[in-house]
Write a structure and sequence with these properties.
- Helices cover about 15% and strands about 35% of the residues.
- With about 220 residues, it is an alpha+beta fold.
- It has one domain: Umud Fragment, subunit A (Ribbon), CATH 2.10.109.
- Strands 1, 2, 3, 4, 9, 10, 11, 12 and 15 form a nine-stranded antiparallel β-sheet that branches.
- The longest helix is centred in the N-terminal third of the chain and has 25 residues.
- Strand 3 and strand 4 form a beta hairpin.
């Protein structure tokens, strides 16, 4: 008598799980990272600029070789203020960019004489300058323009030489020095109190001790 036997086939071994992403997935991750980095870099460049100071017209506030962050949206969302340090295209050669301090706004009368600066008849006390100005100037600032001076008054190409800066030429407001580290700090504005009181001494009230000049983009 024949005995019947049942045999079971051994199950095929399971395929090993894929523990590592394939080459395609790695490439996708790399591309996503590059695209996000490019978008982030573009966004940062839209709202800010990084510049290197090249020159001594803003001594003692800024010196050659210092690196500064500029807010390019400052005057798209707000208005310039007295004492702001701004970056702008040089009106006589827009390929060049300068950095100076705002002294006068639209409609202001700027008179510089006897080593003093007056804005609408108010004398300015300027603790941030290298030395009092040795030149004489009488300007009325046109509409949509700014009157700017370097803190190193007697060694600066600025509005006392070539006139006010149109707002369309302004790149933005300098915010802070980020290099070298021992110079790190914010560049504050100075505000004029009691404008219009003829002969009354007034001042840009010191928020931060500042410095600037021709610049190079980084």
């Amino acid at each position: 008598m024949l005995e019947s036997f049942q045999t079971e086939l051994d199950p095929e071994p399971a395929a090993p799980e894929q523990n590592k992403p394939g080459i395609l997935r790695v490439l996708v991750d790399i591309i996503e990272t590059l695209v996000l980095s490019a978008l982030l870099f573009a966004a940062i460049n839209v709202i800010s600029a990084r510049i290197r100071v090249d020159g001594q017209s803003m001594l003692p506030t800024l010196n050659t070789g210092e690196f500064v962050i500029v807010n390019k949206l400052a005057y798209k969302l707000g208005s310039p203020r007295y004492g702001d340090i701004i970056v702008f295209h040089f009106p006589r050669d827009p390929e060049q960019e300068y950095i100076k301090r705002v002294i006068g706004l639209s409609g202001d009368r700027i008179v510089i004489s006897n080593k003093h600066v007056q804005v609408n008849g108010t004398f300015l006390d300027e603790p941030y300058i290298a030395a009092p100005p040795l030149y004489e100037v009488d300007w009325t600032v046109p509409e949509n323009s700014l009157f700017v001076l370097g803190d190193n008054r007697n060694n600066s190409s600025d509005s006392h030489n070539w006139g006010p800066v149109p707002m369309d030429y302004v790149v933005g407001k300098a915010l802070f020095i980020y290099w070298p580290l021992d110079k790190w700090g914010f560049l504050g504005s100075y505000s004029i109190s009691s404008l219009g009181a003829s002969g009354t001494e007034s001042a840009f009230s010191n928020l931060y001790q500042p410095s600037a000049t021709l610049i190079q983009r980084q």
